[in-house]
Amino acid sequence: MSGSVQDGLRRLTQVLAQGRVDDPAREARLVLAHVLDVAPGRMTLMAPEALAAADFEAALTLVQRRVAGEPMAHLLGYREFYGQRFAVDARVLDPRPETETLVNSALGVPFRRVLDLGTGSGCILLSLLANRPEATGVGCDLSVDAVQVARANAAKLGLTPRCEFIVSNWFEAVRGPFDMIVSNPPYIAADEMSGLERELHHEPRMALTDEADGLTAYRIIAAGAGEHLEPGGWLMVEIGWQQGAVVADLMRLEGFARVSVLPDIDGRDRVVQAVWPG
């Protein structure tokens, strides 16, 4: 295709709209700006300029992947999360805005050494360390690929000296103690997977579901956290919006105190937090 940037945006928007992608005009701007390596806000100013055929074809290829259900973050190669840019791809869960509720909650209490279970891209741990210059931490994940992504993100953010990423099946390779443990574990029940939006099927299945009732990780975390926490240390986990009461009960049964359920920006239950008594 030959023509202007505006012509290219119009055509890309049409393809996205035909593919029933939400807000196709916005997504077309994001994709073409990425290909042209400019800020999306410059698209209006660049509208009359000529668009090279190679650039349009590159953008069209990305748009076709988007129509097929691939997350926008995978096309761009990053996701903005808590004021930082994190590299993401098909090896890790795409960070969601609601997960920032967990980061906010953790930053609301004192900590100096933190463990992030199922770290994925490392976005939770690295966001915490970026906002607590005196803190250090460990992120673990069963996925070797995820650990590689997290290490790369730490290096890009200049946080490698204050964190370590290890391959571990939950607590198996972890050595404490910590004064905070955080986690966004797989919490979707196996029988709910078929009803998920199509973008999620492009993300690691093991980061989404426990292939059971969605509570397996919480049972493991609640049972093992006390052995890895200092007295008075915090445990904070992200949950599915209907899991607050049952996850809170799991923590109480394991001896945690001051258990509470916190809402996200939409008012839905999102975080369960508790203190290991001491």
Describe this structure in words.
This protein has 278 residues and is of the alpha/beta class. It folds into 2 domains: 3-68, Helicase, Ruva Protein, domain 3 (Orthogonal Bundle); 78-275, Vaccinia Virus protein VP39 (Rossmann fold, 3-Layer(aba) Sandwich). The protein has 10 helices and 11 strands. The chain has helices spanning 5-18, 24-36, 43-46, 53-67, 72-76, 100-107, 123-131, 144-156, 216-225, 244-253, and strands at residues 3-4, 50-51, 78-81, 84-87, 113-117, 136-141, 163-167, 178-183, 229-238, 257-263, 269-275. It has a 7-stranded mixed beta sheet with strand order 7-6-5-8-9-11-10, with helices on both faces. It has a two-stranded antiparallel ribbon with strand order 1-2. Strand 8 (178-183), helix 9 (216-225) and strand 9 form a beta-alpha-beta unit. Helix 2 crosses helix 4 (53-67) and helix 6 packs parallel to helix 7. The termini are far apart.
Short characterization:
The chain is of the alpha/beta class. It is built from 10 helices and 11 strands.
